[in-house]
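Worked Example 4.2. Consider the chain below.
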Amino acid sequence: MTTRRMKGIGRREASKYLESLMGGPLTLGAALAGLREAEARSLAEFAKLIGVSRSHLCDIEQGRRAVSPERAARFAQALEQSEAQFVRLALQDQIRSAGLRLTVAVKAA
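Applying the procedure from the previous section yields the following structure tokens:
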């Protein structure tokens, strides 16, 4: 789906589309990897940008490390992305890893 075609759809539909491409649920790690690859940055460059080690970023991208909501918000700020979306993904990852079948919704206070 091109950017032009995606303009008219909401975040929920965009997330579902990305999940269909990935073959599974959208995670914070996958979102970070996608942003990094879209910017053609190395793991080391991107890790420095968000303030973590290269190996830590690799673990996040591969789903081996969870990210706190606070850290997700800092990542979003560093990358000029939506804090609400990054925090939602971090919380959703934690809920999914706990085996709960719940969906998280986050909005600014």
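The domain at 27-97 is CATH 1.10.260.40 (434 Repressor (Amino-terminal Domain)). Residues 1-6 have pLDDT under 50 and may be disordered. Compare this with Example 4.1 before moving on.
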